[in-house]
Amino acid sequence: DVFRALSQEAALATLPCSGMSAAVVRLVPAGQEVAPEDPELSDFLQQVQQLQADMSAMTGEDHIARLFRPGAKYFNMNPFEVLGLSHKASVDEVKSTYRKMSIKVHPDKNPGNERAQTAFEIVKAAAERLEDEERYSFCVRICQAAEDAAVKKVHSAKKKLRKEGQDDAVPEDDPAKMEMSVKVMISRMFAEFEQRKKQLESRDAEQKKKAKEEQAEKEFMEALKKREEKMWEKSRQKRVQGWRSWSTSGASTGPKRPKVKEERRPDGKGYNSYWDERGEDYKKEWR
Question: pTM higher than 0.85 for the full model?
Answer without folding.
Answer: no
